[in-house]
Automatic annotation (TrEMBL):
It comes from Atlanticothrix silvestris CENA357. Substrate binds at F173, L174, R175, E176, K237, F282, L283, Q284, A285, G286, G290, K353. Belongs to the UDP-glucose/GDP-mannose dehydrogenase family. PANTHER family: UDP-GLUCOSE 6-DEHYDROGENASE TUAD. This is UDP-glucose 6-dehydrogenase.
Length: 463
């Protein structure tokens, strides 16, 4: 099928590349010319395991193209994905201006022939109908420009088929760091809409994924496809993220109680996670949830509830537990080192989770800011950020090129991100290079006994 994906960030580029990989003819559109240039040369503007490989093979087979020309994209695609950002406004509300610009642009460029316009971006509930309206506005604006003053009626200028489209909500559940894997191995596909024709085309698009042709385990039963109305599909996305974020806040709260009573949250998580009603995933206690999705999506749902006169108390509590949790490492540093002024703290990891280069709303940012405020010097080593340099606009932190340089002269280390390579560093050597061999394990990632043997004073979260 002919697909156009508008917005080539973590979601759009992965979606476009994966759809091309399974045989569709894809054009990816972005208004950032630099990105388009980079992608045309076969390079991915983001770090995501496996992405460059499938991008490059799709370029070679001619299944994927990149462009900044929206008109060309709209002309090409029978299915048009909107995958631009919906960042948070200071009020917590979702900023939908990029979605609006794209929807208007689609309307202005529709050229006849039925199209399915798919909201892949995470958008406020009700956005499906709103996008339809904006697309129609775009068509109307174009029509106005085509009608000569006092001339023929507009519907004679643009053929009626131009306005033949349906809007579908197809929320995305991929995780950064495993986005390609998640796209080929989804737990479910949600399709919201009120046009059976559009839903059927979307089912056709996803058939190879539904049939697990590209899955790690091809013997699994087909991926469940849930067809809903537009609003329910939009709500599913927010509810899923709010639930997962609340689950993490719950275990973090349990961890804080464990700290006080002398229990070990990693054992507690195992013990409750074995109950199939609870499940073992997303029970990793630590320095809180961050990233480009959980904080903004939970805030947006709270805001929506507020708009309807409902106070989402549980979600607000999940946020407030998280705000405190994101500074738990600071609390622990103060307990051990007492005064932080003049001390040097080394951060192992900066990104909000491993296997990504994304620093959006990363807990490390709060930590750096607060350590600086208290007069501590902050250094960091991150396998990706240390390679890509300071392009993230980080300030108040010296980024080192390896873990041993990081340890050199530090009063304490904080493990912020559980990068796999941090499990096999030469900790004994690192401890010797430090002024005080203190290690705050913000992700309960390392084995406490091994760390003590390496010469560290080890402090976990709730263990
Ligand atoms: N990042 C994730 O893991 C994830 C997962 C699920 C859902 N989502 C949702 O998907 C959406 C996209 O998220 P993301 O992280 O990929 O965003 P991103 O910021 O990484 O990428 C957005 C891209 O859209 C481009 N863009 C903006 N305006 C444009 C326009 N008018 N025309 C063409 N391109 C334009 C930007 O240049 C950028 O490349 C958001 O709504 C987000 O909430 C994200
Ligand atoms: O047990 C856990 C699991 C995660 N986290 C933290 O939670 C945040 C989010 O992690 P994760 O969900 O793995 O990454 P994201 O890429 O943000 O993915 C989430 O957000 C995406 C954007 O909406 C959704 O598509 C995904 O389904 C959803 O998992 C990170 O800071 C993690 O460190 C924990 O602290 N403990």
């Amino acid at each position: 099928m002919r697909v156009c994906v508008i917005g080539t960030g973590y979601v759009g580029l992965v979606t476009g590349a994966c759809l091309a990989h399974i045989g569709h003819d894809v054009i990816c559109i972005d208004n950032n010319e630099e990105k388009v240039k980079l992608m045309k040369s076969g390079q991915s503007p983001i770090f995501e395991p496996g992405l460059s490989e499938i991008m490059q093979s799709a370029i070679q087979t001619g299944k994927i193209q990149f462009s900044s020309d929206l008109a060309a994209g709209v002309a090409h695609g029978e299915i048009l994905f909107i995958a631009v950002g919906t960042p948070p406004l200071p009020t917590g509300e979702s900023d939908t201006r990029y979605v609006e610009a794209v929807a208007r642009g689609i309307g202005a460029n529709l050229n006849g022939g039925y199209k399915v316009i798919v909201n892949k971006s995470t958008v406020p509930i009700g956005s499906g109908d709103w996008v339809r309206m904006i697309v129609l506005d775009g068509i109307a604006e174009r029509q106005k420009t085509l009608v000569p003053a006092g001339g023929i009626p507009s519907d004679e200028v643009l053929p009626e088929s131009v306005a033949q489209f349906d809007v579908v909500s197809n929320p995305e559940f991929l995780r950064e760091g495993s986005a390609v894997y998640d796209t080929f191995n989804p737990d479910r596909i949600v399709l919201g809409g009120n046009s059976q024709k559009a839903i059927t085309l979307m089912q056709e698009l996803y058939t190879p994924i539904v049939e697990r042709k590209y899955a790690a385990d091809q013997s699994l039963p087909p991926v469940p496809v849930l067809a809903t109305d537009l609003s329910s599909a939009e709500m599913i996305k927010y509810a899923a993220n709010a639930f997962l974020a609340t689950k993490i806040s719950f275990i973090n709260e349990v961890a804080n109680i464990c700290d006080r009573v002398g229990a070990d949250v990693t054992q507690v998580a195992k013990g409750i996670g074995l109950d199939s009603r609870i499940g073992k995933k997303f029970l990793q206690a630590g320095i809180g949830w961050g990233g480009s999705c959980f904080p903004k999506d939970v805030a947006a749902l709270i805001h929506t509830a507020d708009d309807y006169g409902y106070e989402a108390q549980l979600m607000k509590a999940a946020v407030s537990v998280n705000e405190r949790q994101r500074l738990i490492a600071l609390e622990k540093l103060q307990q051990v080192l007492k005064i932080l002024k003049g001390k040097t703290v080394g951060l192992l990891g900066l990104t909000f989770k491993p296997d990504t280069d994304d620093m959006r709303d990363a807990p490390a940012l709060n930590l750096i800011e607060q350590l600086n405020r208290l007069g501590a010097k902050v250094k960091a080593y991150d396998p990706i950020v240390s390679q890509t340099g300071m392009r993230h606009g980080l300030s108040g932190v010296l980024v080192e090129t390896d873990a041993e340089r990081l340890a050199d002269g530090c009063d304490a280390l904080v493990l912020v991100t559980e990068w796999e390579q941090f499990s096999s560093l030469d900790y004994a050597k690192m401890a010797k290079l430090m002024l005080h061999p203190v290690l705050i394990d913000g992700r309960n990632f390392l084995d406490p006994e091994t760390m003590v043997r390496a010469g560290f004073q080890y402090v976990g979260v709730g263990r």
